[in-house]
Write a structure and sequence with these properties.
about 30% helix, flat, about 0% strand
Length: about 140
């Protein structure tokens, strides 16, 4: 594999399932982050109306509050030799059953017909579409 033919860009997919034990604590942390960001002179300039809208959203929806607390730069900011180019993430409430085959995280993924969905996927990420991928992550 020559360096000239290999892309410098890597798409890293991370999926997390989190259990919320204290919705009020998550909302409080998100509201504190919004207030802290508003006071940071080096931070993003968000108009007061945008701050109010964000505060309302995180107060009403724990999934939104959690998404506002997650920063992809925190995941890779200290990794030497890389620069975050673009990030997209979202959160949503889900029904989660760790015993269900739909949530098999050990790499032995099969679809509803029992077909191995990993078959034919290039682990290097350049072998076509991953049938497990879907939506913004």
């Amino acid at each position: 594999m020559s360096t000239e033919k290999t892309s410098r860009f890597v798409l890293l997919r991370v999926e997390l399932v989190l259990e919320i034990h204290d919705e009020e604590a998550v909302a409080r942390a998100a509201l504190e982050r919004i207030a802290r960001d508003a006071e940071d002179p080096d931070g993003p300039r968000i108009p007061e109306s945008g701050q109010a809208q964000a505060a309302s959203a995180v107060a009403e929806d724990t999934a939104e509050a959690l998404a506002s607390l997650v920063d992809p730069f925190d995941l890779v900011g200290d990794v030497p030799g890389v620069e975050l180019q673009q990030a997209s993430w979202s959160s949503e409430r889900i029904d989660y059953d760790p015993g269900s085959p739909d949530w098999d995280l050990d790499g032995e993924d099969v679809d509803e017909d029992g077909v191995d969905v990993d078959e034919g996927i290039d682990e290097g990420g350049e072998g076509g579409d991953d049938p497990r991928a879907g939506g913004a992550g």
